[in-house]
Amino acid sequence: MKIKILIPVFNDWQSLSKLLNNIDNEIQNINHEFSIIIVDDASTFDRQLETEDLSNINSIKILVMKENRGHARCIAAGLKYILEKEEFDYVIPMDGDGEDRPEEIKEFIKTIENNPGKIVVGERVKRSETFIFKLCYFFHKLITLAFTGHSIKFGNFTCLTKSTVEKLISEKATWNSFSGALTKVEKNKISIPSIRGERYFGPSKMSFSNLLKHSLSIISVFKNAVLLRSALFIIFYVYLIKSNATIIMLIPFILLLIMIYSISSLSMRENMDEFKDCLKNIASIENLK
To answer: Which of 185, 179, 161, 183 is nearest to 83 (CA)?
Structure first.
């Protein structure tokens, strides 16, 4: 099998160097062809990658982007490039900082060998962040379930079939949220346990504000379901408080309106014309190996 590992990166070259070495070590006894596609999201730091000793990786290619578009759109552009320009059987998108652990690649491969043609997602069973962040992440999953009807326990770290990549490229939501789009286009997914690793270097980039935007971006993929459930909640809540309406009692209603406005704004990022033209943002393609 030909397997492409897709890694978006912005400035974090030190972590990426370590990740590439770890990937090379982990795949040495796997009898499949592995290649790396790196999407450089218009980094402002000089690149420093050591690739000479990576004997188990078949090739390494960097797509250097002209303009910074963000993590989700780097993955979307990378998938589009791989589908149109590369020969492959599976794609594994993963973060370049070590939080997606390369030792779990073997579990992905074992699972697809036993279940050919199926997609596999790494379901988070353990995280490495602070208690406060874990609590916020729990509420993110709870709110997502409540307003969309979907329990989304995975991130970018997945193993995608070619047919799934084709579906994602035809889905405008992919330009906004990878995990939301994947949940929308694929109902039958095999889950394997995945532990969120610690960053190799530097602090995590997933701040509270980034988590909030990430959560709302996923929810915005299912905006029609959200609007319907929100309407039902408003009707029920108004009936519940009609005899005891106070300013404090209106706070949940106000927060809900803010959320609806936010997801409506984020859903505007689902621009299919931009998605179709995203490869025009590639300034150069560099073959490192």
So the answer is: 161
Rounded distance, CA 163 to CA 167, Å? 6
Distance CA 54, CA 33 (A): 13
Q: What are phi and psi of 125, to 5 degrees?
A: -110, -15
Let me know the angle formed at the C-alpha of 204 by 23 and 173, rounded to the nearest 5 degrees.
80
Which has the closest alpha carbon to 153: 195, 112, 209, 210? 195
Instruction: Please give the pLDDT value at position 39.
Output: 98
Q: Considering all CA atoms of the chain, what is the largest pairwise distance in Å, rounded to the nearest integer?
A: 73
- Tens digit of each residue's pLDDT (9 = 90 or more) over 189-248: 999 999 988 889 877 666 667 777 778 888 889 888 888 888 888 888 777 777 777 777
- Exposure on the CB side of residue 221, measured as CA atoms within 13 A: 27
Question: Strand, coil or helix: what is 285?
Answer: strand
Q: Which residues of the chain have pLDDT under 50?
A: none
Residue with tokens 């602070």: 130
